[in-house]
Amino acid sequence: MSRIAARFAALKHEGRGALVTYLSGYDPDPATSLAILRGLPGAGADVIEVGVPFTDPMADGPSIQRAGLRALKAGATLDGVLALVRDFRKENAATPVVLMGYYNPILSYGVDAFCNDAAASGVDGLIVVDVPPEEADEIEPQAKANGLDLIRLVAPTTDDARLPRVLAATTGFVYYVAITGITGTRSATTADLAAALPRIRPHTDLPVCVGFGIRTPEQAAEAARIADGAVVGTALVDALAASLDAEGRAKPDTVRKVLDQVRALAEAVRGVPSAA
Asked: Which of 52-66, 145-159, 239-253 is least confident?
């Protein structure tokens, strides 16, 4: 059983949803990024998404775009992000790690080499935003051969005809995008969240996690209650950015402030039983 499957099975046994956290690798520098990464499980993150910085992040809003620029300025590369995961795995063998990013850096790295190195580094799954199921042959065989889950985004605009095809090409968990548009531009409403499950459940037995627009502990709790998990990214990226100095450098309390935000989210998520 993969780490992702094992984690969701354990959470289902506990009767609660997952807290999935997102932060960009190397933001604002490699040492701070690693310190936060190492602290996330203890703060309550059940699954960790690590963003791979890219110069043209089409699905990301201003906050994550700025995080990517800080990371690139700090020297972020795909190989460097894999090194972060390897360092994380020296102390944590249980928490699932998912890389989220775009196809161009993978193509430049070499798809075969990337999937092999990602698995060897301790990566469990991939979210490649700009590779739809129709183009899955670009990476799916290599990912499958290396035991990497390919997690797909399902949006409110994914129509009923295409939905089964997207879900059939998904492994690990389903990432339901609660809002239309890019990350961090507006918050999800209760209606946004409630719309997620009825369309998806008939087509898959995979866990469903809700993201894009989940910013507060209350929203995270509601998403985890109606689905199998809540994905929080922009709110954590904003907490990190607010902790930096005027030059964008980490301050002594940067790691603590980010992890405190995670603890508040985890407390809310763990305080509600999951209807899923």
From this structure: 52-66
